[in-house]
Input
Amino acid sequence: MRSSKQASHLNGNNMKSHHRGFTLIELLVVMAIISLLLGILLPALTRARKNAQQIKCATQVKGIHQGWIAESNNNPQQFYPLPGEINRLPIATQNTPGRGDFNEAKNNHQNLWRACLAKALFPTSLLYCPAESNTRIAVHTTYDFTKYKPAQDMYWHGDTPDGGGGGAGTLPPFQLVGNPDAGLTASNVSYATMPLPNTARRLREWRQSGNSKFVIVGNRGPRNGSTQVGEYDASATLLIHGDKDQWEGNLCRNDNSVAFERTFSPDGLDRIGSGTTAILDNVFLAESTANGRDSLLQMVTAPTVTAAAASHTASWD
Output
């Protein structure tokens, strides 16, 4: 007859004999299940991340426009910030803040962003899209707010007095470097907005118009809103919110409404022209300046001002 101690010892051996590791088949089954779950979850997580970026971008575009609206409330004509109005031409060689003709030579986008920051309309981070695809675009972190010196004819970091010298430094902020063919090679802003030359478009819409039929700021698009093979599919702007084959972006209208679009010609905009020859408004293509209804989003690197007309140089991607 076995003692209780011997029985306990035997039971312990029996219990130990039942503990074992995973077999190779069981391990493979577990790994297959994990792989399947990852295959299901990862696309959903990627889409959730892209949706969050798109929503944040829409909020930023709306915030930029709200900054312009707030500033226009302080302007008798309800104009949005205009660099050439902020820093005007001298009168009889004398610079007088708030007086003189508009200095059209200052009306490019890099001066616009500099002037808006000097007026604290929004922070520099608001100008960088969370889904930015161009690695040469980055947030500007060293904007110098002490460069605002109207008595010295300097109204933003990078502004140069009419007499020359001072203010610009070696690397002005928001310097848009690029050309229509090569695209942007350096910038501190992700978004395109309406060009600022003195045209019917600016007189009509660079102000608090509340026009829901006019797009004024948003994600940039391919050069001239082209859908041609070799231009459209090669544009880095397709990677901002869309995929490598389709452009998608947030567009803000002059009533401060923002919509996520998949077309260069959103619904509800005025047609360009009249009658049977009227065409849809492509917001990335300059189609007409006759009546100011032509929405146009670009990144203007330099204006060209002559006695006869005003034009500009734009960059892309």
About this structure: The chain has five helices and eight strands.
